[in-house]
């Protein structure tokens, strides 16, 4: 169960002495809106929720809330990423108290069959449990490693859908990802050449994601192949500050033009199929969150590529996941 810890948040809020608080909730926390507003209303604060999507720590509503004149923005559900904001901002990450060890111990035969050295990864909700997982696996005679935190994430072992820097350099035989959903373990698998076990503490199941990874790779290579025969490209840059990759977009435009393609730039807040439908370009390169092209490909009517896939189109090199390294 997710623990909001509103009392802990209140202590931080008080330091800003706000009258009006803007609140941004990812989809999975919106069912707590009444609880959150009730908590702050009863203490004399005016609360305004952002109704726009909140995809990640890269996507803060400080411009929107700043235009409304709120005194403070609380961004729920993600750990700190952006160092500055238009209005004072608190990143309030939310932890999950679901036990992890029963899933690890319940699948220990599978885990031990994968090798001796394992890298452990998770998302912000479970990072506080990684220490006990490492100790448990060490007790089984394994070497269990957490990568160091990096600029885009705040905790050792933490990964984002666009950043696996914490764990990528680990000298391990395989990775164990702890969490729910294929989004992050598939990212690890695409980003590293090691097997990935996806262990879900809610179902207690662990599975190797190799099959899902290969399915996605087949689709990515098909999109690259289709794009290779096209002439008119557009590169879409996002106005979300943690996804803004304008300089990379300029580099991609140059690369495309040097290889005989036409290319235009598009700047957008939301990247969706209406952009792809309305503009008459043949291929769209997403210089924003790399998961838009990879995970939402079926929502688009035309080929969409990541930044690194454009390079592969000309070089023919092996698949390279499009990580975002900067803040
Ligand atoms: S860029 Fe994409 S994967 Fe990375 S934090 Fe933002 S929404 Fe998540």
What can you tell me about this protein's structure?
With about 325 residues, the chain is α/β, with parallel strands linked by helices. The protein has 13 helices and 15 strands. Helix 8 crosses helix 9 (about 210-230) and helix 9 packs across helix 13. About 45% of the residues are buried. Iron/sulfur cluster (SF4) binds near residues 56 and 289.
What would a concise description of this structure say?
The chain is built from 13 helices and 15 strands.
List its traits:
327 residues; alpha/beta; Rossmann fold; 5-stranded mixed sheet; 13 helices; 35% helix; flat
Question: What secondary-structure arrangement, pairings included, does this model have?
Answer:
Blueprint (H helix, E strand, L loop, with lengths): L1 E2 L2 H9 L5 E5 L8 H9 L4 E4 L12 H7 L3 E5 L12 E4 L2 E2 L4 H6 L1 H6 L3 E6 L7 H10 L3 E3 L19 H4 L5 E5 L4 H9 L4 E5 L4 E4 L1 H19 L3 E7 L7 H13 L3 E7 L4 H6 L4 E5 L2 H6 L8 E3 H9 L12
Parallel strand pairs: 2-3, 2-4, 4-5, 7-8, 7-9, 9-10, 12-13, 12-14, 14-15
Antiparallel strand pairs: 1-6, 10-11
Helix pairs in contact: 8-9, 9-13
**How much strand?**
15-25%
Largest sheet: 5 strands, mixed
Radius of gyration (CA) equals: 21 Å
What's the name of the CATH homologous superfamily of the largest domain? Diphthamide synthesis DPH1/DPH2 domain 2
User: Which fold does the CATH topology of the largest domain refer to?
Assistant: Rossmann fold
Helix content: 25-40%
Low-confidence stretches: none
SSE pattern, N- to C-terminal: EHEHEHEEEHHEHEHEHEEHEHEHEHEH
What's the helix count? 13
CATH class of the largest domain equals: Alpha Beta
CATH architecture of the largest domain: 3-Layer(aba) Sandwich
What's the overall geometry?
flat
Class of secondary structure makeup:
alpha/beta
Number of domains: 3
Distance between the termini: 30 Å
The beta-strand count equals 15
User: What small molecules does the structure contain?
Assistant: iron/sulfur cluster
Q: Provide mean pLDDT, rounded.
A: 97
Side by side, the strands of the main sheet go 8-7-9-10-11
């Amino acid at each position: 169960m997710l623990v909001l810890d509103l009392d802990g948040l209140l202590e931080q809020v008080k330091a800003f002495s706000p009258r009006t608080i803007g609140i941004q909730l990812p989809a999975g926390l919106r069912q707590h809106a009444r609880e959150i507003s009730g908590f702050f209303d009863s203490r004399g604060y005016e609360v305004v929720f952002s109704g726009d999507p909140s995809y990640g720590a890269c996507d803060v509503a400080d411009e929107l809330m700043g235009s409304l004149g709120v005194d403070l923005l609380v961004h729920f559900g993600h750990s700190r990423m952006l160092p500055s904001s238009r209005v004072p901002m608190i990143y309030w990450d939310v932890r999950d108290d679901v036990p992890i060890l029963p899933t690890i111990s319940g699948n220990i035969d599978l885990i031990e069959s994968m090798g001796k050295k394992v890298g452990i990864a998770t998302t912000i909700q479970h990072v506080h449990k990684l220490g006990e997982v490492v100790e448990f696996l060490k007790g089984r005679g394994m070497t269990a490693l957490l990568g160091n935190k990096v600029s885009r994430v705040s905790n050792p072992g933490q990964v984002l859908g666009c950043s696996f820097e914490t764990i990528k350099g680990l000298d391990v035989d395989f990775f164990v990802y702890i969490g729910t959903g294929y989004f992050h373990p598939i990212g690890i698998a695409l980003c590293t050449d090691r097997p990935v076990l996806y262990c879900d503490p809610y179902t207690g199941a662990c599975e190797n994601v190799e099959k899902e990874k290969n399915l996605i790779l087949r689709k990515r290579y098909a999109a690259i192949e289709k794009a290779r025969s096209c002439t008119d490209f557009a590169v879409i840059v996002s106005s979300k500050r943690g996804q803004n990759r304008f300089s990379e977009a300029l580099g991609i435009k140059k690369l495309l033009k040097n290889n005989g393609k036409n290319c235009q730039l598009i700047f957008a807040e939301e990247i969706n199929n209406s952009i792809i439908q309305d503009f008459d370009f043949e291929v769209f390169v997403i210089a924003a969150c790399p998961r838009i092209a990879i995970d939402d490909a079926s929502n688009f009517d035309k080929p969409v590529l990541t930044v690194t896939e454009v390079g592969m189109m000309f070089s023919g090199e092996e698949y390279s996941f499009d990580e975002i390294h900067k803040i």
